[in-house]
Amino acid sequence: MRALLSKPMAACVITLLLSIHTALLVYSAKVHSPTWDEVGHLAAGLSHWELRKFELYSVNPPLVRTIAAAPVYLFCTPKMDWSYYRSDPTLRSEVYLGRRMIALNGIDSLRFFYIARLALIPLSLVGALFCFLWAKTLFGLDAGVAAVLLWSFSPNVLAYGSLITPDLGSSVAFLGACFTFWQWLERPAGALTLLLSLAMAIAMVTKSVWLGLPVLFGGILLLKIAKDYFSAGKSRHSAFRTLVLFGVAVAGSLVGVNACYGFRGSCRPLGSYQFLSQRLSGVELIRLPLNDCPECAPMVRTSMEPANRFASRWTGAIPIPLPENYTKGIDIQIRDFERGHYDGRWQSYLLGSWQQGGWWHYYLLGLVWKLPIPTLLAIIIAVVSSLLAKETASVRWGYVCLLVPATAFFIAVSASTGLNRYFRYCLPVLPTLLVFASQTAVRWHASTKRLAHGCLFSLFIACCIWLPVVSVRSNPHHLSYFNELGGGPSTGYQLLSDTSVDSGQDLLLLVKWLAERSPGEKPIYLAYFGSFSPSDIGIGFKLPPPRPSRRASGHPAYRREQLSPGWYVISKNYVAGHSMPVPSATATLHFHYFGPNAFSYFRHFPVVEEIGHSMNVYHITRADSERFAELVALNHISADR
């Protein structure tokens, strides 16, 4: 297709876009405090380098955090207390190691996280490259440039592109693996087979969910072979050769995964594992009675003996072609999703409601609320544009390789309703949507229906101008971004919770806010949603009193505490009723668990300011305190979720 931009002009535009994108990521990495998951990821990454072990954070494969920790390990000297290390991945000791690391290094630990974040920014640039390659190869040069623009100014890409988490890295690896498979499908040869094997291996060591890629790719391959055999008359020998090459690629990818772990515990028989998940262990669960908090009563295994539903079956002898810790991580991940159906501490949240188990439409609504309106419009425009266009066979197979894996993933993640808290779990579908949306950029000179394509092209250009404005205006608060359909970031916590709103990222903005206040004022009351204590980086604070309830009122530290006048900074997650433990104001490695709705009573008070868009600031006066006491006395503030 005839391009609107020349190659030199396109190169200049892409360079400018990626420069702005990099600057936004660097700034975000600098101004945000370590998020909940980053603390454990960096500690785990350092353990991979220092101890050459992979037990920590086994629910996610180690590639991304190993890259992030490399410059910290090589060029910095963080103080670490390895006595907190536990080889059992079920203990999740990376959380305690990370907390201890921040406690030991204090304010200096922020520098380590900044350096580690910088190491991952190139992954976002690689993502932009794959978006360009996909769109350019499918549609044309102009579409490639448009895809880079949509990627560079996506709030979700900017949110996770500078964090030490595998969310964006796994999305990039998924997009790259799908592109490599498409190229291999067009020309199944030796060199491309090696690249496909490498691409799948890289994807698998970013997120274990991509173990399903060989199945998805294999299904597409069989469909193509069948079509070629019946319509193009290709020989059985050619089909057999293609299948053999694909088998070699899959085998090579599994070898790559095992090599990443140093082949530790590879190919253990399935029956030799001790599983925690109900699906793999076969152990039944019972609820333990807790008189002080019935809704928090945990479910426990009926037996603490090693459990494996396959141990006594013939399947137990089958060797698993994966490293031991990779397999254990999958089991723990399955268990975590199962806990959402029965454990009161692992409830799902949507539209202000908490419940056991989630909703099939959770991620669909998340996309509607968390994607900028110009991006949503660009996707809708692309749907109409694709219906008007006529594509070649090669492009149609490109569509299949682009859309089928992403659609299958989205259906699978939407069907996993055990734990609906994290919109980021569906992030891998975003690059696919952006590439698909970019096609309108080349439809302006279509040979048929030119008026319709011209109108769609004009609307698409308007979206491309609108998106950077939206992105820059929300900078750097991309984690808590909600579009106008979701009411904006200030009230987004009424729709979604947890990392979609607050992951502990705005603690440094709180430091700035405190510096601007009168130095003579008393310490603030703070309920921080994070995995370390703010006191470790010099923030003096007290914990607000939890809501009146049997559990909270019986807590020894707060039995006589009242709501005193003063400044209160409360994470929006806690205002929404989140039950995550709260960092202590005195003991740096101690967290208080007050149960759900501990601080949701702050809904009764007006918000004075916001810290970023993740924490609300309240100024409680003496009159507010007295009014609150009256509401409690009249039982107008519910003690139960």
In words, what does this structure look like?
With 641 residues, the chain is mainly alpha-helical. The chain has 3 domains: 7-259 and 362-474, no CATH class; 270-349, no CATH class; 499-633, no CATH class. The chain has helices at residues 7-31, 36-51, 63-75, 93-105, 109-138, 141-152, 155-160, 166-186, 190-204, 213-232, 236-260, 278-281, 324-339, 362-370, 373-388, 393-415, 429-437, 450-474, 507-516, 550-553, 572-575, 622-633, and strands at residues 285-287, 299-301, 348-350, 353-355, 524-527, 541-542, 566-571, 582-583, 591-592, 609-611, 615-620. The strands form 4 sheets. Strands 6-5-7-11-10 form a 5-stranded mixed β-sheet. Strands 1-2 form a two-stranded antiparallel sheet. A two-stranded antiparallel ribbon has the order 3-4. A hairpin with a 2-residue loop joins strand 3 (348-350) and strand 4. The longest helix is centred in the first third of the chain and has 30 residues, at 109-138. The chain is globular, with a radius of gyration of 26 Å. This is Glycosyltransferase RgtA/B/C/D-like domain-containing protein. It is found in: Cell membrane.
Mean pLDDT: 89
* Residues in helix, %: 40-55%
Total beta strands: 11
Structural class: mainly alpha
- Bulk shape: globular
CA-CA gap between termini: 59 Å
Rg = 26 Å
Q: β content, as a range?
A: 5-15%
Low-pLDDT residue intervals, each spanning 5 or more residues: 550-560
Query: How is the main sheet built?
Result: 5 strands, mixed
Q: If strands are numbered along the chain, what order do they take across the biggest sheet? A: 6-5-7-11-10
Tell me the domain tally: 3
Membrane topology: Multi-pass membrane protein
Protein name: Glycosyltransferase RgtA/B/C/D-like domain-containing protein
GO biological process, one term: lipopolysaccharide biosynthetic process
GO molecular function, one term: pentosyltransferase activity
